[in-house]
Write a structure and sequence with these properties.
Elements (H helix, E strand, L loop, with lengths): L1 H23 L3 H18 E2 L4 E3 L3 E2 L6 E2 L10 E2 H7 L7 H13 L6 E2 L5 E2 L7 E2 L6 E2 L22 H17 L8 E2 L2 E2 H9 L12 E2 L18 E2 L1 H20 L5 H19 L18 H9 L5 H17 L3 E2 L2 E2 L29 E2 L3 H9 L3 H17 L14 E2 L5 E2 L4 H15 L1
């Protein structure tokens, strides 16, 4: 009898330990490591008032602290999307948030104009990035020059994602400070809430289903983390961001007792209803688009699961294809994620159909940490063990190549490949986005 009791106790302990490993996802020590690294990278990314960056870029004359995409010499300007994607870490104080929110609002385009290179800056457009020395908005990727911006290879319209990240910046500030009256504050003659609504409607969208799109003649980058690719037709990634922005706008409009709240909730519902039928392939992956670069998109698929746009069988299929790709080695390397599975490359010369980057470099086949948390979240729906393995590989790579060791160490990198290529050390979203997702999974 005692022998049977002992066996039963051992089985119960084994089940309990297994459950604890699955439900905790990351050990407390690993989560603490990631939180500590994120804090340090965030600090390395700050540009304090009057802090001198370089002879070329000058000092921060915007009046308060800015957060750039990373430390050292990477991207010495204020990038709206990178900052907005890092907000949910909870590590950015109210004062800093307010400054960057108001700077973004004040640099919103209040008069449509055409650049010298022939690109259009629409009324209501949000900057891709803002210069630190003179606060001039640069609406297009690929340059720091106000006069020289808007070359066609980066689109003839500003990137679509920043309009929706502007909404997210305001929403996060309001929700975490309780200061909803900021929405009624005027910035250059327009209330902040009106600026948010205008921004939301800038990216070209189908009037019936609200899906964002681009054409060959008039194209904006769908998402700044692939601004070196040409993607046209209906676009999944910015439509996912638009879905979230619509729900956030609806909630903010409720706070100020506006009757428009329901309108934006209906937009969100229509996008959620439309997205699977328009973009899902037979495996369950979301395509990036319906035109050029109509390819299965790892980042969009994972983000759609993460933000709750896929449900039921669609969710299971999407999560399963990512889990299977993770196990087969076509998805990740050292815990970092490709935009496209290696089996889905357009051809032997390029991952994306149209790219300014060489294959297996930058956004055209290199591996990124930014989406690792979204991918883990999706895989965890169907295969917790594979999700845990992927997360542990990601953490292990950060520990091995931790920039705080000095010398040639640089993790978190923006991206890298399986050879010797690395892009930009001490990159903020590489740790900030996974941290936010991992916390969400552990709750």
């Amino acid at each position: 009898m005692k022998h049977l009791q002992s066996l039963l106790m051992i089985q119960l302990i084994a089940i309990s330990v297994g459950f604890a490993q699955t439900s905790s996802f990351l050990t407390a020590a690993d989560l603490a490591f990631l939180e500590g690294m994120t804090k340090d990278v965030l600090e390395a990314s700050r540009i304090y008032p009057d802090q001198f960056i370089s002879k070329e870029f000058g000092a921060n004359k915007t009046g308060a602290t800015l957060i750039r995409p990373g430390g050292r010499n990477a991207y010495p300007s204020f990038w709206i999307r990178d900052y907005a994607m890092s907000l949910e870490t909870g590590l950015i104080p109210k004062k800093e948030q307010l400054h960057m929110l108001m700077l973004t609002a004040s640099t919103q385009c209040d008069q449509a104009w055409v650049t010298k290179r022939g690109s259009l800056v629409p009324f209501g457009a949000i900057a891709d990035h803002v210069r630190i020395d003179d606060s001039k908005p640069i609406y297009f990727p690929g340059t720091y020059s106000y006069e020289g911006q808007g070359t066609p290879e980066f689109g003839t319209l500003p990137p679509y994602c920043d309009q929706f990240y502007f909404v997210h910046m305001a929403y996060y500030y309001v929700k975490h400070t309780g200061d909803y009256k900021i929405l009624l504050k005027e910035v250059n003659g327009f209330r902040l809430i009106d600026r948010l609504k205008t921004s939301f409607h800038v990216p070209p969208s189908d009037v019936t289903n609200h899906i964002v799109y681009a054409t060959d003649a008039m194209r904006g980058v769908d998402f700044g983390f692939r601004d070196a690719q040409a993607i046209t037709g209906n676009l999944s990634f910015p439509s996912i961001l638009k879905y979230r922005a619509a729900t956030e706008l609806s909630e903010m409009l409720q706070l100020i007792k506006s009757g428009e709240s329901k309108k934006y909730q209906q937009i969100a519902s229509k996008i959620k209803e439309t997205l699977p039928g328009l973009f899902l392939d037979e495996r369950g992956m979301l395509l990036a688009s319906t035109g050029k670069s109509k390819q299965a998109d790892v980042w969009a698929t994972a983000l759609a699961v993460y933000m709750g746009l896929l449900e039921g069988e669609n969710l299971n299929k999407a999560s399963s294809v990512l889990a299977n790709a993770c196990k087969s080695g076509t998805l990740s390397y050292r815990g970092n994620i490709r935009h496209i599975l290696t089996t889905d490359d357009y051809n032997e010369k390029t991952a994306w159909e149209v790219s300014l980057s060489a294959k297996n470099t930058y956004q055209n086949g290199a591996y990124w940490g930014t989406p690792t948390g979204w991918v883990c979240f999706a895989i965890n729906k169907v295969d917790p063990q594979s999700a845990m393995t992927l997360a542990n590989e990601y953490i292990e790579d950060l520990k091995t190549n931790d920039y705080r060791k000095g010398g040639n160490f640089g993790a978190p990198y923006e991206c890298f490949n399986k050879e010797t290529y690395t892009q930009n050390p001490i990159y903020l979203t590489t740790v900030a986005c996974p941290l936010v997702a991992f916390r969400k999974m552990i709750k």
